[in-house]
Amino acid sequence: MGLSVEVEDARSGKIIANVDRLQSHATIADVKARIAEKHSKYYVERQSLRLEAKGKALKDSEQLQNLGIDGKLYFKDLGPQIGWGTVFVAEYAGPLFIYLLFYLRPEIVYGAGAGDKPMEPVVKYAAACHSFHYAKRILETIFVHRFSNSTMPIRNLFKNCTYYWGFAAFMAYFINHPLYTAPCVQQTKFALIAFLICEFGNFSIHILLKNLRPPGTRDRKIPMPDANPMTLLYNFVSCPNYTYEVGAWLSFGIMTQCLAVMIFMICGFGQMTVWAQGKHRRYKSEFKAYPRRRTAIIPYIL
Amino acid sequence: MTGLHRAYLLLYNVILAAGWASIGWAAVREYNHSGHVKHLFRATEKSLFIFQTAALLEVFNAAVGFVKSSTQNSWGYVLILAAWTVTEVIRYTYYAFNQLNMTPFILTYLRYTLFIVLYPMGVTGELICITKALPVVHSSKLYSWGLPNTWNLSFDYYYVLIGIIPLYVIYFPQLYSHMFRQRKKVLSPRSVDKESKNR
Fold first, then answer.
1. In the annotation, is B45 catalytic?
2. Using the beta-carbon criterion (under 8 Å), do A258 and B149 form an inter-chain contact?
């Protein structure tokens, strides 16, 4: 006989599909596939199905028979979607090119003769560090990170690119300016080393997180320090990758003594704190044995 | 909400309503007296300075307040004054009555209807003032700091103002339609009935 489900649009109240002849172990993913067959505009990634009109989105893997539904699901259109990987590469490639434009072709930005003065060493280090940071991010997106969702709303692409590209131009403008004033050499050297340590720390955490769930398994584990000493920060915070990221930009700002960088660092710190606190809360509610000494992003403080 | 808190809110809203009314009255009186809009600024600037509230007001006040003649003599300033005084008097009176739980329907109606004219009027006035202020800000380098300096950051108020102008244009449709949606929600027959039943 097979299961059947009536799908109602949560916003308009109209029935958009009556999916029948579903197998007994059919999942949400199967229902979505059938809806996409009927309405080609609503590809699977664009659909959110819930038990109630304003309820939480159901996972694709959920089986209908376990949900206890009365033959009815609610549908919401998430809008045009774009792949996460695509978004990340776009938002990180921009800063790479934009900063190098200011560094390599200053006459385009500041006018003729801008490139005539001899360049302070710190300006070269800054270009190398900034480029390294975003090249690392692009490579991590392609080879290291594993995303749980495959897509995000396309509106995010515009918002994220404005943020990253805008701030890259903002910082690059002042550091590569003909009237840029370099700080003392000791400050530059110390901060450069701190920057590299933080970049390595951030990378170490990304590798640890990738190894946390072996491919093909559905393990859910508390992240713990591994053989890499940089991961010892896990003894103090839930999201040491964010801690290292803030440290990297703070170091970059001290190295260049540029307030524009500090402003960028503060904005990033704010957003990452919100994410870290959310993750920290989720960890605590999911794992009874979650280490109580840990805070979200700054040891003992935040 | 404690009694003290309520009393404070009531007092605050009554004072602000009175303040904005006084600005409006001073403006009308000055116009009647001189027949010009030229002196409006001088007559209203002190009270205006005290009673500004919204962050948006900071922008036009900074553009207008410390910049000489051209913005103060302009029709842009008149539009801003008219739009803001009427809106704010109604808004704060409305809040004051809400504190006492005795808001007359006519007040609610005005609050959610006059914006249809006043909001575009205010935005136009602010854009005129900003545009008129631009050349003066540029030549006087108002609120601007340049390179070189030890923090390697510069700020140019002239370009900030130029950047703000398109934001007004971009966000106007969204905000305007939001107000229409609010109007529909508040003034619809269902919620009006609920309001009268509560009394």
1. no
2. no
Contacting residues for B17 by C-beta, under 8 A, at least 6 apart? B88, B89, B91, B92, B93, B96
Q: Which of B12, B119, B143, B168 is catalytic?
A: B119
Q: Please write the tens of the pLDDT for every residue from A128-143.
A: 999 999 999 999 988 8
Contact A180 B151 (CB under 8 A): no
Instruction: Tell me: pLDDT of A11 over 50.
Output: yes
What is the DSSP pairing of strand A72-77 with strand A3-9? parallel
pTM of the model: 0.73
β-partners of residue A3 are A22
Whether the CB-CB separation of B101 and B62 falls below 8 Å is answered with no
Residue B58 appears among annotated catalytic residues: no
Please state the domain count of chain B. 1
Residue range of the domain that includes B96: 3-197
Residue with the two structure tokens 């700091």:
B145
Check CB contact under 8 Å for B151 and A258. Answer: yes
Question: A264: burial class by Cβ within 10 Å (0-12, 13-18, 19+)?
Answer: buried
* All domains of chain A in start order, with CATH: 3-79 (3.10.20.90), 82-286 (no CATH)
Q: What is the pLDDT of residues B135-176, one digit of tens each?
A: 888 888 888 888 899 999 999 989 988 999 999 898 899 999
Contact A101, A170 (CB under 8 A): no
